[in-house]
Structure formats: structure tokens, C-alpha cells
Fold this sequence. Notes:
Blueprint: H1 6-14, H2 24-30, H3 41-51, H4 64-71, H5 75-93, H6 99-119, H7 125-130, E1 136-141, E2 144-149, E3 158-162, E4 170-182, H8 184-187, E5 193-195, E6 213-214, E7 219-231, H9 237-247, H10 254-285, H11 290-304, H12 309-326, E8 329-331, H13 335-339, E9 345-348, E10 355-365, E11 370-373, E12 384-386, H14 396-407, E13 412-414, E14 422-424, H15 427-437, H16 443-449, E15 452-459, E16 464-470, E17 478-484, H17 486-491, E18 493-498, E19 501-504, H18 507-522, E20 526-535, H19 544-547, E21 551-563, H20 567-576, E22 580-584, H21 589-598, E23 609-610, H22 611-615, H23 619-625, E24 631-633, H24 637-649, E25 654-658, H25 664-669, E26 672-676, H26 682-687, E27 690-692, H27 697-737, H28 747-757, H29 759-765, H30 791-820, H31 825-844, H32 861-879, H33 881-887, H34 894-919
Parallel strand pairs: 9-22, 9-25, 18-21, 22-24, 23-24, 25-26, 26-27
Antiparallel strand pairs: 1-2, 1-3, 3-7, 4-5, 4-6, 4-7, 8-27, 10-11, 10-21, 11-12, 13-14, 15-16, 16-17, 17-20, 18-19, 20-21
Amino acid sequence: MTFPTTSNTDAMVKTDASWQAISHQEAVELLQSDSNSGLNTKEIQRRQQLFGANELKETGGRSKLTILWEQFTNIMLVMLIAVAIVSGILDLQQQQFPKDAIAIFAIVILNGILGYFQESKAEQALAALKRLASPQVTVIRDGITQEVDAVKLVPGDIMLLEAGVQIAADGRLLSAQNLQIGESTLTGEATTVEKKADLILAEDTALGDRKNLVFQGTEVVQGRAKAIVTKTGMETEIGRIATMIQGVQNEPTPLQQRMGQLAKVLVGGSLTLVVIVILIGVLQGGWQLFNKLLETSLSMAVAVVPEGLPAVVTVTLAIGTQKMIRRQALIRKLPAVETLGSVTTICSDKTGTLTQNKMVVQQVYTPSHQIEVTGEGYAPTGTIQSQDKEQTVIEPEVTLLLQAAVLCNDALLQQQKKQEWSIIGDPTEGALLSLAGKADIFKERLEKKMPRMGEFPFDSERKRMSVIVDNPGGASPYLMFTKGSPEVILERCHSIQINHNTESITDNQREQILSTNNSLASNGLRVLGFAYKPLKEVPAAATEEANEQALIWLGLVGMLDAPRTEVKEAVQKCKRAGIRPVMITGDHPFTAMAIASQLEIAQKGNRSLTGQELQNMSDEELEQTVDKVSVYARVAPEHKLRIVKALQKRGQFVAMTGDGVNDAPALKQANIGIAMGITGTDVSKEASDMILLDDNFATIVAATEEGRVVYDNIRRFIKYILGSNIGEVLTIAAAPLLGLGDVPLSPLQILWMNLVTDGLPALALALEPGEPNVMSRSPNNPQESIFARGLGLYMVRIGIIFSILTITLMAWSYNYSSLEGNPERWKTMVFTTLCLAQMGHAIAIRSSTRLTIEMNPLSNPYVWGAVALTTILQLLLIYVAPLRNFFDTHVLSVTELAICFGVSLLMFVWLELEKVFLSNK
């Protein structure tokens, strides 16, 4: 046997051959192999050198050291590091212990570590893909059947496949016997795919319909086959997905962008204010005051940076994740909690997410009855009703059809210890057992009366199956029940069962049955036809062609993977919230549109887009189309990725659900990737931001609601923290300008306020329940500034009021302390007033419209607890000697403390009066 030269082999494999569009003989010739003896050892070695190992290759990412270093390049932390260094130098010059510098460095390190742990979770999607590889594979090499490591496969190898084998490379089937492949890991569709070697398909055949090919990572469920390896490693379909996953760039979330913007504004504003204070101070008092001005500048820099904010945001997001777990949503990446609040489009898979992932009979048509069936899942509870909604009398023709559904069936329906009903076997056959159970016809009881005596098993060529059962007491000793493709069954029927009578079937009746079948199929239902035939004896095996003739028609059964009952309400909730649901599935367009119409994701008559149509569109054409299409069917992995990208280019903020390996690139590209917890593959879970523990679309909507609440609370405590910080900065800046000669607050005291006085109430505000209209408004604009919708104006306004009250107190207390003989006590009064005023701010900011007295104090008791605890801690700093010495405070008299409380109360009064004024505007 001769083989091509290396250059020819290289060209052969790297061309993107449409293997489904050529015969298996042509595939063998193109790969220059031999279907009986395989490749020889010499050629295998050459191809292994040329093509490399049959494994997925990982591109480089950020190292953990790089991630840690990047935490300390944050502009706010850089400024704090500079402040700590300068503060330490000043303290050492004055021969003082540099406790301020140490405290600032400790905060910098803690914030850096916090950021590192948020970002350092390594991306494991590729590792999960690698786990799909089979370690061993049976091949024919040198004419000998042998087992080799899957990593050593090369194009041209001959693989032998059997039930239970995980396929180790992409291949073209050479022969197949009753071959069923489970491709859910690749396509996301749960039903097995029947494969045939002799098919020749169109070049543009969708991935899920390439029935003459096998793919790496999928599993043989039934049968056996021989296949020639066509692609290995990164050239396989799984490899293409790995390439797409690694090609997706991680974009910062809206919260991360906003926090970055906030940092730049704060640092820029702080440096500007520092320059102004130093210039004015120098102009007033000359360069001899420079050291004092520098100390003032350091305190201002520390005051402007909300050191506790990263920790508060992280804890808030963590609290949000706990709430979402209770709502069956597991958050893998903390920023995703807030990001959910910005979602404008949810791209959802169909099977198991919008539907129950359980086939349920919807309609039954017998010659005399049009029947609708109610009930959910496989539970044999529900009704069998005529279309006028009156309970149907189970006529003989209906009873016979239900008996056929039970007896011509290899599945089992069971319930263990009063738990949920489940099936063992094919979901379609399970749906038939559930249907019969609703009429109190159960397989166990019926088979005792009418035991199976023989069968003609299902065959994909015949498209039908038959069973022969005992018929005690009947006109004939045996009955044969047949089910299968309606057209095939009807073609073999000469008669029709109408109640008690058997009549010859007419052409009009045939046309009516076919018309009903087409109508059901066009609505996305899977339709089966049923017939029976009396027999005098059990026929011999392999006589199905002779015996499956002259059948008596019983009727049609239409079934569907029914929508989840709660999803329709969730879809409506989405629409009220300004979120557009979109279905993206590998299923048939008719089925997809039927489900989408039922759930009101799309209206009947709306256009659906297939993967084949999408393939022929340019990216620009797709961008113009995505806003008009709500249903995508028969899609491939790259199609899902293109859809998400097109939506994002249209300004949409996209959540994408998925469970298969093929979903991973789109999950990673989406602003929020959502994997299925029950049916999802490890690959999809590792590529996602969130996992649905119940695989339910309604859970996404619940999580979105929680995300909006979290973002509202983040805005609330940012208003609280930064409004207070602006007041601190203005107060510190005013001290040298008023000629007080000293800084009222040390960096250590400012850190206390920013971490404790601000931090504890801020954490409590993170637990504020959502507003009643949270899902009746448009999504948060992901592009909006953190200062949008009045937040910036509020912070400046409240900061100015804060500073006016505190500066007034500062000027009075400075003179008062001098008269009292303790010139340092004014600093403690300023420090205490700032802290206590923030407590009133925390209580008032819970609502921007309702007065505090109008709100239920028990709706968020944590705020009251945080205010009480923080107040006590502040008093301990004044009256407990070790703490007083460490924080450089002084004991205040009862009168001085009362003045601090009184001035602080004015802050609360102002905020409440603002609400009254704004509500009357």
C-alpha cells in the first residue's frame, strides 16, 4: 500500500473537507488508508510527527503572579501606597512610630489580596474539554485489531466502535449496525442520533444532522461501527470549540468599569484639591508651612479613598450569591451578581430550560374523537378530554389505542417512595405509558392479562415496531399492535376502527388522517401512528413484511417536550422588565417555533432563523437581523457565538444559557454565561458565570431581579460612603485655610471612619430589600456612569452640607477648647461629630422618597444594629484608655458629647427635610 508524501498529506488534512458530502469509499481514498488493514507503522509515525498529538492545546493566559501584581496597579491603591510612604518618612523624621503608614499599607495589602482572589480562579473550560477525551481506543493497524492511546490517533486510522465507547476523534463512518450516538455533549440535544454509513449529505448540512459522521467526545449508546479518523486534536469539532473558548476575550463587567471610573474621578479630584490647598496655604503663610500642608494633603488623600468600599462591594455581592442560591442560582463569579441587573436579552436553550425535558402527549386523534390531554411530566395524572372540554368516554377505539401504546412499548414508568415519576427507556415510549396511566391503564397490570408472545423490533428502515400479545377471551387468540411513522403505518392499513366496528378505510379518511398528521407535525409535535391486527397464531421471526399488512387503523398520538408551567409567567415578567427572551436551539424549526409561540417568546407566523440560513449571512447582515428574530433553530457552536456577538454589537447586554460543550464559547462571550446544573456538561459550567441548579428559565428571571436589587444597594451605599468622604475632605481642607494650624484628623482616624464608621452601616445597607417596582422598569444601562441618575449631584450636595455642619463645629470647638485649657480636644469633637453624623445619614438613606418614620424598621433591622454598634465603638475610642492613646483622641465632657450628638442630628434632619421638599416638587 502506498501513502502520499508529507506535503500532500499536509494539504489533505488541512483542507476543510466536507466529509459528510462524500462516500465512505472516497473518504478512505482521500485519506489514503485501507478500511480492512488500516495504516502501517511507518506511516503512522510519519503522520504523528506531522499532525502532532490528538489532544487539545492550551494557549497562554495570565499567570497568578501577574494577576497579583495587577491588583497593586489600581490607581487608588497606588495613591495610598504613595501616601503611606510619605507618611512613614514624616513620622520617622519626627522620631515617631509610623503607625499611620503601617495601617495604610495593611489596607493596601488586604485590598490587593481581595482583588486577587476574585480574579485568580483559573479558567477550567479547556481542562473540562480535555476530560472528554477517551484514554484508549480500538483501531486496526497493520491489519491487526489493537488498543492504542487516544492521543496517538492520526487521520486515516480505522476506529472500531461499540456501545459504551467514548469516541476519541472525528471520523467518517465506513459501516454501521443499529448505531445510536449520544451527542448531547456536543449539540446539547438529549435524544440519541441514529447514524448510517451509506448516506451522502449536502455540504451545508447542520452539525446535528451529519448522520454519517462521528465526533470526538460523543458516546456510542447502541450498536457498533467502523469509522475512519478524519480529524484529530484542535481540528476536531471539540477542538474548534476549544479554539473559540480561548479566543473569547474577558471584558470587564459594568461594575468593574464603574469602579474603575470612580477611582479615576476620586484620585483626580483629590490631587486637584491637594494642589489647591497647598498653593493657598503657601501663599498665605509661606514655605515654612509646607510640612503642615503636606500632612493635611496626606489626610485628604486618605479621606478621599473609600478604603472599605472594595470589601463592602465584595461582601454585598457574596450576600447576593447566597440569596440567589436560595432561588436555585449558583454564582461562580462574584461580579456576575450585579451584572445580571443590566441584562437586556436572555438567549435560552429550549430543552430542559424552557421545557420540562420530558415528552408529554398533547393530543390524540382517533377516527371518532379529537382528544386533548392534560398533565405535566411523566406523572400519570391529568385528564383525557374531548376538544369541547367534556370528559371523554373511553370508547373501544380509544381503549384499543391506549392498549397499543402500553403493550407496543419497551419503556418502564415508575415511582419510588412517592417521589417524582420517572421512566426507564425511551422518553417517547415513557410519554405513551403516562398517557395510558391517565386512563388507569398500566403496563404491569395489562401485561399480566395480555402477555407479549412475540415481536418485530423497531428498525429505522421499516420505521415501525410490532408486538404480538395474548388475547384471552377475544374473537382471535392473539393481537398484533403496531406503532411507528404515521405515513408508513397508514399505508399498510386496509381497515379502520370506529368504536365497536371495523370498517374498510376510504380515500377521504386516509387524506384526513394525513392532513391531521401534517398539522400536528407543523406545530412541532412528534406524531406516532397506531394500528392492530387479529392473529390466529404467533408469527415466526423475520416474517414482519408478510405479517405487517392488512392492519386496522387506530389513530394518531402527538407529543411534545412541553413548556415548563412557570416559564410563561417568567417570559411575561421579562418583557415587563424590558428584557427580550430569545430561543436558540439545535431542535427542528417547527418544534422550536411551537414552543416559542406557546410561551409568547414569538408570535405565530414570526420568522425563525436556521443555522443553515445564518451560515449564509455575513456578520453585518446578521447584526441587522438579530433584533427581529426571537427563535434560532438547528444552530451550530459558531452560530451561537455569532448571535451573541451580533446582539452585543447592537448594544444588547446578553445572558446566554447552555448545557452542551457546543455552548461553551457563547457562554464565555456573553455578558452573563448561564450553565445548566442538572444536564450541563463540566465544560459549559466552567465557562459560565452562573449555574442554574434547577435548569429552569424562571430561575434566570429571579436571579435577574436579585441582580437589580444588588445594584440598587451598591448605589445606595456608594452614595452613603462617598457623600461622607466628601464631607471629610472638605473639613480637612478647611482647617489650614481657617488658620487652625493643625490637621483635625489623622490618617489613622480617617481609616477608622472609612473602614468601621462607613463600613458597618454600608454592609447593613447592602441587605436593604428591593423596591416594589424593581422588575417593572428598564434594565440598568451597562454604559451609564456610576454617578448617573443624580448620584453624583447627591454626593456633592450632601458632602457640602456635611462639611458646613462640621466646619462650623470645628471653628467653635477650636476656640472653646483653647478657652477650656485643652487645645487638642477640638479634634476629638470633629472626629466624633463626623462619625455620628454618618449614623443619621445611614438611617435616612434607606429610601430617597419615604421618610424614615414611614418605613418599617423591621424591614432592615441590620441598619439599626450597625448604627448602634458603630456608635458604641466610637465612644470606646474616646473613653477606653488604650484605644484613646492609640487613636490620639481625648476624653470629652458630657456637654461636649451632647453638642456632637446635636450637630450630628442636624444631618439627619436635613436629609429628611430634603425628602419632603423633593416629594412636594
